[in-house]
């Protein structure tokens, strides 16, 4: 698949935003984050800013962005529609949580409940985003049981990396977030490696023979190209990335997205220096942010649509 800039930004920003919102709501509800106005402004502002920017950017890769609202009506059958509905619903408890955290500096029962609801809805929204791709049977790399877990783990990992920076900024760090960054980093790293191994070892179910129904005649090959000039399908659906490039990008993704946050978490767990911890947390966030962009690009670039069989 041809990686679109808007879809890469959407999946990266919304994943990190909802991951951060889920953790803010959860830890705020249980009193593991202070009801401090600064924490609320920076944390919830960043979370809602990322989710809003991501959702807006997702309309740019639609043929008719002005009709995007119509997708909300298909929630019974469409994961895209379900994602839109859940994203809108998530704003309601998130705004209530922000009112309590920022304006009233209170995380009492009502605001704590709003935080828990926002956390649950954020996780569901990330899952719906993942299922948009996991439900597409023509693309075997996406139609994989590991697609949704990878989206969830990556969203929570980027969320906790950002939350760790906020906690150090407002001196609210007490080791929990570093431990969580370590656990999520290792889990997300392992899940991604399992995903890569699965798509590399999987034998394609659909071939030219099965697609044409002529397998009983032997090997099938096209006599001539389907079109005399490049078309939309070739531009959007048939994208090839060299194997050597994919290997190098996978290594880069592992270092930036997973290894650096895991190493930073290990160092943060073993040190008490708040100034050093803040600097290390910021560096981990910067590298992880760059790494996720590469990871998302690779996720789309390595996907092979079945229609590509007619253009090989």
- Quote the CATH topology: Formate dehydrogenase/DMSO reductase fold
Cα shape: globular
Total number of domains: 1
Separate helix tally:
10
Structural class: mainly alpha
Report the top-level CATH class.
Mainly Alpha
Parts with pLDDT < 50 across at least 5 consecutive residues: none
User: Could you tell me how far the N terminus lies from the C terminus, measured between alpha carbons in angstroms?
Assistant: 14 Å
Strand content: under 5%
Q: Please name the CATH architecture.
A: Up-down Bundle
Q: Mean of the pLDDT scores?
A: 86
Q: How big is the Rg?
A: 21 Å
Helix content: 55-70%
Order of helices and strands: HHHHHHHHHH
Number of strands: 0
Assembly state (oligomeric): single chain
Major sheet size, sense and barrel closure? none
What keywords describe this structure?
mainly alpha, 312 residues, 10 helices, Formate dehydrogenase/DMSO reductase fold, 68% helix
Task: Write a structural description.
The chain is mostly helical. The protein has one domain: Formate dehydrogenase/DMSO reductase fold, CATH 1.20.1630. It is built from 10 helices and no strands. Helix 1 packs antiparallel against helix 4 and helix 2 runs antiparallel to helix 5. The chain is globular.
List the helices and strands and how they pair.
Blueprint: H1 5-29, H2 37-58, H3 79-103, H4 109-134, H5 147-169, H6 176-201, H7 208-212, H8 232-236, H9 243-269, H10 274-301
Put the structure in a nutshell.
The protein has ten helices and no strands. The protein is an all-alpha fold and 312 residues long.
